[in-house]
Amino acid sequence: MTDFFKGIPAIKFEGAQSDNEFAFRHYNPDEVVLGKPMKDHLRFAAAYWHSFAWPGGDPFGGQTFQRPWFGDTMADAKLKADVAFEMFQILGVPYYCFHDADMRPEGANFAESARNLDEMTEYLAEKQAESGVKLLWGTANLFSHRRFMSGAATNPDPDVFAYSAATIKTCMDATIRLGGENYVLWGGREGYETLLNTDMGRERAQAGAMLQMVVDYKHKTGFKGAILIEPKPQEPTKHQYDYDVATVYGFLKDFGLEGEVQVNVEQGHAILAGHSFEHELALARELGIFGSIDMNRNDYQSGWDTDQFPNNVPEMALAYYEVLRAGGFKTGGTNFDAKLRRQSLDPEDLILAHVGGMDACAAGLKAAAAMLEDGKLEAARNERYSGWDTSDLLGLDLSTIETRVRELDIQPEPRSGKQERLENLVNKYL
Amino acid sequence: MTDFFKGIPAIKFEGAQSDNEFAFRHYNPDEVVLGKPMKDHLRFAAAYWHSFAWPGGDPFGGQTFQRPWFGDTMADAKLKADVAFEMFQILGVPYYCFHDADMRPEGANFAESARNLDEMTEYLAEKQAESGVKLLWGTANLFSHRRFMSGAATNPDPDVFAYSAATIKTCMDATIRLGGENYVLWGGREGYETLLNTDMGRERAQAGAMLQMVVDYKHKTGFKGAILIEPKPQEPTKHQYDYDVATVYGFLKDFGLEGEVQVNVEQGHAILAGHSFEHELALARELGIFGSIDMNRNDYQSGWDTDQFPNNVPEMALAYYEVLRAGGFKTGGTNFDAKLRRQSLDPEDLILAHVGGMDACAAGLKAAAAMLEDGKLEAARNERYSGWDTSDLLGLDLSTIETRVRELDIQPEPRSGKQERLENLVNKYL
Amino acid sequence: MTDFFKGIPAIKFEGAQSDNEFAFRHYNPDEVVLGKPMKDHLRFAAAYWHSFAWPGGDPFGGQTFQRPWFGDTMADAKLKADVAFEMFQILGVPYYCFHDADMRPEGANFAESARNLDEMTEYLAEKQAESGVKLLWGTANLFSHRRFMSGAATNPDPDVFAYSAATIKTCMDATIRLGGENYVLWGGREGYETLLNTDMGRERAQAGAMLQMVVDYKHKTGFKGAILIEPKPQEPTKHQYDYDVATVYGFLKDFGLEGEVQVNVEQGHAILAGHSFEHELALARELGIFGSIDMNRNDYQSGWDTDQFPNNVPEMALAYYEVLRAGGFKTGGTNFDAKLRRQSLDPEDLILAHVGGMDACAAGLKAAAAMLEDGKLEAARNERYSGWDTSDLLGLDLSTIETRVRELDIQPEPRSGKQERLENLVNKYL
Amino acid sequence: MTDFFKGIPAIKFEGAQSDNEFAFRHYNPDEVVLGKPMKDHLRFAAAYWHSFAWPGGDPFGGQTFQRPWFGDTMADAKLKADVAFEMFQILGVPYYCFHDADMRPEGANFAESARNLDEMTEYLAEKQAESGVKLLWGTANLFSHRRFMSGAATNPDPDVFAYSAATIKTCMDATIRLGGENYVLWGGREGYETLLNTDMGRERAQAGAMLQMVVDYKHKTGFKGAILIEPKPQEPTKHQYDYDVATVYGFLKDFGLEGEVQVNVEQGHAILAGHSFEHELALARELGIFGSIDMNRNDYQSGWDTDQFPNNVPEMALAYYEVLRAGGFKTGGTNFDAKLRRQSLDPEDLILAHVGGMDACAAGLKAAAAMLEDGKLEAARNERYSGWDTSDLLGLDLSTIETRVRELDIQPEPRSGKQERLENLVNKYL
Ligand SMILES: [Co+2]
Ligand SMILES: [Co+2]
Ligand SMILES: [Co+2]
Ligand SMILES: [Co+2]
Ligand SMILES: [Co+2]
Ligand SMILES: [Co+2]
Ligand SMILES: [Co+2]
Ligand SMILES: [Co+2]
C-alpha cells in the first residue's frame, strides 16, 4: 500500500439520502436493472492517462499536480501502477484502460520503449491478478511524441508509419497479454493542419492500410476483443479524418472493414463535431458499429475538448437509453476519459470526481431503464411510423407513385410531432 | 422587356482599373485560362429562388422586398420569369437553377401544382430558346410547405413520401424538358428535430429507397445529367442526414450508389459543418463524388446559413484550386445560392451583388490557375510525400514492420511542414 | 369560453408520482419554499407572441399552425385574447407579457395602430379583471415591420426613430394602463448587418437618447415598474449592441442610467453570447442590474435562438440559485419566451409544453432553495476566500506590496479548487 | 552573431513581382502612405514569447522545437536574447514585446526572479542600444506558473495577489528602464473555471484595485506610455473577466479608469468572443479606448486561440481601415502575437512567417489607405445618416415625438442598405 490515498475508504453504496461524500448514492453494483446487475450494464473503466500521467498543464500553463510518481524511471512507473490499482479498488471499478505511454517510460529507441512496455505489462498482469481489476482496452499513444507531429499512419514519412505500426503491434500484444476486451485506435494526429501541404488521397490510403493491418493482426493472434475507432473532429489537428461516427462509417465501408471495426464514442467529441452524444450513439447503433463509450463531458461554452467528469443526469439518461436500445455493451463499457480540473490538486479530488461520475452514470442508467421498461416512449415512436408498417411504397418507382398520388389525390395532413410532451415524459423518469 | 431593371446596362468586362460599378473588373468570359475560356471554367448560374422568390424575411421580421411579381397567379409567375431572364442576360450568366416552387404557383392539389409546373416549364423553355440561357440544374422544394414539416422522403407518414416522390418525378421531367445538366436533391427536412420521436433506421432506409428511385428514373428516362446531393448539417432541422461530404459518402456506399450520385458543395454548409469549403471540395474529389458548387458565403460569426454573395478572393482561390485539381466542372458549375441582404431593396443591388460575386470568382479562378500552372505548391506537396514513392510498407504486416523497425533501429526525424511558407506562396498569386 | 382548449382541464398539482400528463408533478403554487409560496418565487408569465402570434415558420418554411384567430381584424385579435386568457387560467400562471404587435392588428398608419392598441388594451384590462391574471411586462415590437429593417432607435433615418419613440410611448401607456410591473426593451434590430454602412458612434448616441427618453417618461408618468433591457448578441442582426449583460452595463454606465435600468436575461441569449445562463445572472446581480428572466432553452448544437421550453432541471437549479442569491425577483419574474416546435400542432402541445416548463422550474427552484438552505456551497465559497477577510492588501500600493513580498518571502501555495466535489454536492440536491 | 539564422539575409523590399521568398513584396518601410512612412503607420513588433520561449506543445503533445537556448540558465536567456535581436534586425521590425517569464529564468523565489529580470533587463537595454530596436510593450506573465492557477489579481488567496502586484511592479520597472511605449495587462487566469467556487463580486473588486494600483504606479513613476488591457473571452479559463472590448469598457467605467486605460485588441480573441476584428477595433475607437493591436489570426473552424500569422489581406484591410479611422496608432502598434505551427521547425520558418505577416499587413494598410483617401465609403456612410444632420429629435421627449408622428403622419420608407455594393467597392481597393 502506498500512502497516496491514505485515509480514503473503499467507496460503498449508501443510498440517495447519504450525506457521506465518500459513498455512492446511486451506484449499487449488484442491484439488478433490466435483469442484470448494474455493474454489468455500466462496465466502468478508469483511464490511466488523465488520472495518473497528466500533469495538469494547459496551453497557457504548466504542471499543477505534484505526484510522487512523476519522473521517468521504471520505479516511478511501478509506483504509478501501485497507486492506480489502489484507486481502481477504492472505487470498485471492474476495468481500466491505458496507452503505452501512460504506463511505461519512453526509451531511447523503439526497442527500449518496447522492453519497458513488456516489463510494465508483466507488472500490471500481477496487479490485475491480485486485484481482480481487468483491462477494458489498450491503445497506443501515437500523438504526444514529436515524431508523430505530422501524423502516425498518415505521416508523409514512411518511417513514421513503420514506427507507428510497430508500436501498435506491441500495444496489441500488451492488450492481449492483459486479457483486454477491446483495442482502441484514436487518431489524434491523423488529420492535417493545412490542406496546402496535405495529400488527402495518400493519407487516406495509408490510414486504410494500417487499419487493415490491425484487423489482420487481430485475426492472426486470435484476439477476440473488438477493434474500436474513437472519432473526434479536430484538436489536436485542425481537421481529423475520424471526424464523427458517420465519417468513420464511410471510411470503413471504403476499405471493406465495416464488419470488423466498431466505434468508441466520446461525449465531448460528439459535441465538438456538432452532434449530441445520443445522436452519435443512435447512429452507431443503426449503422451496426456501436462498440463502447468514453463517458466524459464537454463544456458547451468551450470550443475544445474539456474532458470533464460527467454530471448532468438527464443528458446521461438519454445516452444510456441509446446504449440500452443497442442491446447494451458487449465487449465495450463506460470509460471515464475524464480529467480533474487542473486546480483540483488533492488525492480526494481524484477519488470523488470518479465517485460523482459513477453515481451520475448509475442514475442515468436507472432512468433509461425505467423509460425503456415503461415502453411509453417506444410506443409513441412506433405509433408515429405505423403508417409504414403496411405500406408498399418503398418497392415502387417514381412513375407508379406519381400515378397513385394523382389518382388518390393524396393530400398529406401533418400530425403533431409532440416533442414537448415526449420531453415531459422523459423528465418523469428522472 | 419589363421595366424592373430599366436603365441597367448589360455588364461588360472593363478591367481591374474600371471605376464603373456596372462592369466586370476580373470576369472576362472569353479570356483563356489554362487553355479554356473563363466562362467554361466557371459555368456561372443564378438562382431563381433567392433572387426572385424570397421576400426578405428572417426569423424576426417579414417581407422587405416589394416586387411587382409577388403574388400567386400564373401572370405573376410569368412576369417573374421575364424579369429573371432579363437579369440572366444583363449579367451574361450562361445558366440558372430552380425549384418547382420558385417558378410556379402552388396549386390546390398535386395535379394542379403539376399543371402549373408544366405550363411554366414551357414558358421557360421559350425564354431559354430566345436568350440562350441554359438550365444548370433543377430541384424540388420539399421543405417549405407544411406538408413537409416532418420530412419528405424521411417522413413518418407514407403519404408524404408518396407526395414527395411524385413531386420529384415532375421536377425531373421539367429538368429534362429544359435540358438541365444536373438534378439536385437538398434534404432540408430530411433529419430530425428530436431523437425522441425519430426512428433513424426507418428514415435512413426511406431516404435510401427514394434516392434509388431517383437514380432508376434517371436511367429509365435516359437523362444524361448528374444526380447531386447537397450536404448541409442542420438548419432548418436540428440535425440533417446529409451532414457533410463524408456523411453523404457513407450513405451512398451503404446503398451502393457512390457511382451514381455526386455532391453539390456549398461554402456556407461546409462552414456550418465545421469544415472549410476547400476541405469539402478536396474530400469530394478524393472520394470521387465531386459534382458542382454553390458559391455563396457564410458569416463566420453567425451560427446559421447566411447565403451571402461571396467576396473574399483568397478563400475563393483556394476553393477553385481544389476544383481545378478535380479536373474542373464536368456537368457542374458555379451556382450563386446567394441572397441579397434583406436591406438591399433596389434592383441595382440584385445586379451588382451578382457582378461582385462573379468578379470575385473570376479573380479567385485566375489566382488558382496561376498557382497550378506555376506548380510550386504541387511540387512542395509531392516532395513532402516522396519517401512513399519507393516504399513497400503498405504491403507488409505489423509483425514484419516491427522486425524492420527493430533491425534498422528506425528513429524518424520530423521535418518542417512549412505551413507559413506555403501560405506566403499562395498570397503571391493573389 | 372558446372551444380551442376544449376538454383540457385546469392543471393541478398531483405530486411527483402522478402519471397524469395534465398535472403538475413539482409546481405546487402555495407550497412554501424558503418562507414564501413557490408561486411568489417563480412569478410565472406566459408570452403572448410565441404562443398565439407565431405561425410556425422558419427560414426554410412557412406557417404550420392553423389557428382560428389568424387574421388581421379586431375580431381575430379579440378571439386570440380570449384563447390566451383561457390558457393563462388553465395553467394558473399569474402573469403574461406582450408586444403591441402580438395583440393588435397593424393599422394603415401610426394613428390607426395606436387606436387598435388602445381598444385591445381595454379589452385585455377587462380580461385581467375577470381572471385575476396580471401583466408582468409590456414591450414594443420594433423589429418585425419592414420600416424597422435598419433599426429602430439606431436607424439612419430619423423618421424611424420618431416612429419608434412614438410607438414606445403607446406601449408604455398600455403597460401602465394594464398595471404592468415592468417595461422591457429588446433591440432586435439595434445593431448592424455590415460595419461598412454603419456609424456606430451615431447609433450608440441615438440608442442612449432613446433610453433616456424612456426613463424620463417613466418618471413623468409615475410608473413604478422597472425598465428592463434584454441582451442578445445577434440574430436577427449580425451584431446587436445589447450583446450581453456586461455590454449592457457598460452602455448604461456611459449614459449614466445604471441606476435606472435593469436586465431581463434570457437563457438562449446567454448561450449565443458564449456564456452560461448562470453566468449572466450572477454578473447581473454583482453589477446591481438584475431584473427578470426569460426562461427558455437554446439547443447547444444550434447557432441560433431556438426558444425551446426548458427541461434540464440541473441547469435550471443553477439559474434559480443565482436568482435566490440575488434576493429573488422584485418586479421581475419567470417569463416563458418559448415557442412550440413548429411540428407541435395541437392545442394540447401548447398547454403541456408550459406544464413541463413550469414543473422543471419548480423542481429547479426547490433544488436551489435546498442548496441555499443547507449552506454547504456558500460555506465552501466563503472559506475559499477567507484569507481576504483580514487582508489589508487592497489599500496598499505596488511598491509597498513588493517590499512586503520580498521581506516575507511570500511563496503562495496553491490549494485545490475542488470543482468536482462541488459538482457532486450540487447533484445531491437534484 | 549566433549561427541560428546563418545564411538568412536581412529582408528587403523587392516589390510585388519578386520571386524571392526572403524579400518583402508589399512592405516598403519608407514608402509614404497618407503622408507618413509605412513603418510609422504599422509600427511592427515581434513577440518574444511565441518566437523564442514556446516549445511547440499543444494539449496532446509536447515540445517539437529544439532550440539551443532552451534551458533555464542565465546563459540560455542571453543566447535567446542574442537570437531574438538577430531576428528583429533581419526583419527590420522597429519594436518587440515581452513578458518577464520569456526573457529571464524563473528564480527560486520572488527576489531571485526579480534579480534575474534586472540582469536581463540590462542585457536587453544594451541590445536595444546596439540595434536601435525598441520596446513596444512589456507585460507580466501571471498565468503560466502553478501559483497563478486560480488567478492573479482575482485569486482567492491574498498572497497570490501580493505576489502578482510585486511582479507587475518589477515588470513595469523593466518596461520603463527599456523605454517601453506601453504596458499591457492580459488576465489569462482572471476569470473562473466554475461559478460554484467563485465569488465574482470579490474577484471583480480585487481586479479593480489592482488596475488602480497599476495606474497609480504609472503616475508615480512618471511613465508616459499607455496602460493597455488585452481582452479575451476564455481560454485558458472557462470564462475570463476581460471578455471583449465592451466588457472591458464597462469594467473601466465601474472603477473610473476609462480615461486611464486603453485596449490592446487581438484578432483571435475578437473571433473567440463572437465578433469580427474590425468590430472590436471600431467599438474601441467609438468608446475612446483604442490603443494597440495583436495582429494574429484565428482559425475560423477552431474553437480555441490558434495565434497564427495573419495572411488574409481583405480582412486585414478592414482592420487597418478602422485603425486609420481612429487616427492611427499613438503609443500602440502592430504586434505579432503569433506562433509558428508546431510542425514549422526551421529557423527559416520563423523568419518567413513574419515576412508573410508583415507583407500582408502592408498590403492591407495600403488598401485601407486607398479606401480612406478615395472617400467613397465614408461618403456613402455619411449620406446614409444625413437625415440626422438637421434633426432635432434627440432633444425631444416621447410625448412630443408622438404628437409629431401623429400630426405629420410619419410613415418611414425604408432605403436600401447597399451592403453588396459597398462590399464590391472594398474589393476594388484590394
Ligand atoms: Co476527449
Ligand atoms: Co476519449
Ligand atoms: Co445555404
Ligand atoms: Co445551396
Ligand atoms: Co430568444
Ligand atoms: Co426573450
Ligand atoms: Co491569442
Ligand atoms: Co495577444
In short:
The structure is a homotetramer. The first copy, chain A, has about 425 residues and is an alpha/beta fold. The first copy, chain A, has helices at about 40, 50-55, 75-90, 100-105, 110-130, 160-175, 200-220, 245-255, 265-270, 275-285, 315-325, 345-375, 375-385, 400-410, 420-430, and strands at about 10-15, 25, 30-35, 35, 45, 95-100, 135-140, 180-185, 190, 225-230, 240, 260-265, 290-295, 335.
Between the first and last Cα atoms of chain A, what is the distance in angstroms? 40 Å
> In the CATH scheme, what's the topology name of the largest domain in chain A?
TIM Barrel
Biggest chain contact: A-B, 99 and 99 residues
Write down the Rg of chain A.
23 Å
Question: Considering the protein shown, what is the CATH homologous superfamily of the largest domain in chain A?
Answer: Divalent-metal-dependent TIM barrel enzymes
Explain the overall architecture.
The structure is a homotetramer of 430-residue chains. Chain A has two domains: 12-374, TIM Barrel (Alpha-Beta Barrel); 379-428, no CATH class. In chain A, 45% of the residues lie in helices and 11% in strands. Chain A has helices spanning 38-42, 48-53, 74-91, 100-103, 110-131, 158-177, 200-221, 245-254, 267-272, 277-287, 313-325, 347-374, 376-384, 398-408, 419-428, and strands spanning 12-13, 23-24, 32-33, 36-37, 44-47, 95-99, 134-139, 182-185, 191-192, 226-229, 239-240, 261-266, 290-294, 334-336. Chain A has an eight-stranded parallel beta barrel with strand order 5-6-7-8-10-12-13-14, surrounded by five helices. A two-stranded parallel ribbon of chain A has the order 1-2. The mean pLDDT of chain A is 98. At the A-B interface, helix 5, helix 6, helix 7, helix 8 and helix 10 of A face helix 5, helix 6, helix 7, helix 8 and helix 10 of B. Residues 266, 268-269, 305, 307, 337 of chain B line the site of one cobalt (II) ion (CO).
